[in-house]
Amino acid sequence: MQAHQHFHFVLMGRYQLLSLVSALETLQNANYTAGQELFTWSIHSSGPTPISSIGTREFTCQSLDDIHSPQEVVIVGGPDVAALEDPKLTVWLGRHARRGVRVSGLTTGAFVLAYAGLVENAAVTLHWQFRDAYREMFPDHELSPRPFVGDGTRCSSSGGVSAIDLFLGFVAEYMGEEFSGRVSESMNYVTLQQVQQVASAEASARTRVKNAPTVAALEIMESNLEFPVTPPQIAAEIGVSTRQLERLFNKHLGQSPKRYYMHLRLRRAYFLLTQTKMPVIEVAIACGFQSPGHFAKCFRAEFGLTPTELLKSRVS
Fold it and tell me: Taking the CB of residue 243, how many other CB atoms lie within 10 A of it?
């Protein structure tokens, strides 16, 4: 046993508490397994101590100015994408990143890395609810479908317990795979970890449906939200008849391909409206609607209010 490593956690507004605790518990279990303090950590913010995702303040945050010569910086993101663009934090991260410091983002932390210009050619991942907004804002960035990305100096996880996998990887890097496996066992995490390795950060029906043709059809739909294709085209692509495609969707998803496709497009529209500053007309086009009136009608049928009414309700 040797390396002592310190992690600096930077909390954003309404940071996801589960991600933070998952990371801290992994480090703490590594210390417990070793019988000595291998890893330490401190909690920081660029301003006043933020409120967590459950509305409480569990940690008193130190200032960024208290951090000197960091090696591991972990950004714990929250749901307000606009608030993740923090000029003070951007400058601070840029200064340290130039020295080769590893910067990791949990949940929506990838936005912070992107705002700071730290992503470059690295792949990142983040919580599934924010992936469409990220694609619209940073179309040239590689967005990984995996629940965590642990290679190089830019790492990320998609939220929740995927932070455990990311930090088990860090433990393995510092202490070896065998030791990391023992830490995983101490957390009763072996089975969950194996599931996570093959899981996707894209929280769609593809993660639940086991029928191969249906999964293939869903992949086509999810890849063509801006320029929708027709059910007959999808059926031909996966090698089934249109009628068979209808039967598969009704059996496995309880609705027609057309209806489910519309649901996917409107879900994307909802996320873009609530997570970005895109005008309604641009959101409509990005989700495959050429007519604003048709978009508003379909959106109301799905969510009970028009896109404009949704935006007004969030301001009031």
Answer: 10
